[in-house]
TrEMBL record:
InterPro entries: Polyketide_cyclase/dehydratase (IPR019587), START-like_dom_sf (IPR023393). This is Coenzyme Q-binding protein COQ10 START domain-containing protein. It holds the Pfam family Polyketide_cyc2. It comes from marine sediment metagenome.
Length: 145
């Protein structure tokens, strides 16, 4: 598995940032390679389940994502796990800071080697690392308006 960790400080209250990220249909607005989120279901636990479409190196991948109550601590932590084209665990962590929120995004994922080939792995990892920075920059831009 590959692990990437990125952080950013956003001039917005924790509640605003957390609430935005709790709604899966908001993610394509900030995540360049995330094409679509559909079939969102609210779970009794307070989490969600959905289907997603993602493009990695031009290849369309589809799967499901689920966040559960044990991994959803309001205004502190939100974890979702994906299955399908890419197996991953995405953890969003939120810390109040003077005048805003420190947001940390931690993603652990498996590059779908049979789909992309071993030689492409290093390139994909680098592209995804850059995408993590873009996701946080886009989130910051959305939250600071």
């Amino acid at each position: 598995m590959v692990k990437a960790v990125k952080s950013i400080t956003i001039k917005a209250p924790v509640e605003k940032v957390f609430d935005y990220l709790c709604e899966p249909t908001n993610l394509p607005e900030i995540w360049p390679s995330l094409v679509e989120i559909k079939d969102v279901q609210k779970l009794p636990s307070g989490g969600t389940r959905d289907r997603w479409v993602y493009k990695m190196a031009g290849i369309r991948l589809e799967g499901t994502s689920e966040s559960e109550d044990a991994e959803c601590i309001p205004n502190q932590r939100l974890v979702s796990k994906t299955k399908g084209g890419v197996e991953s665990t995405m953890t969003w962590m939120f810390q109040p800071e003077a005048g805003g929120t420190k947001v940390t995004l931690e993603v652990e994922y498996t590059v779908p080697i049979p789909v992309l080939g071993k030689l492409a792995e290093a390139i994909i990892v680098k592209m995804n690392d850059h995408e993590g920075e873009l996701i946080l920059a886009n989130l910051k831009a959305r939250m600071e308006v």
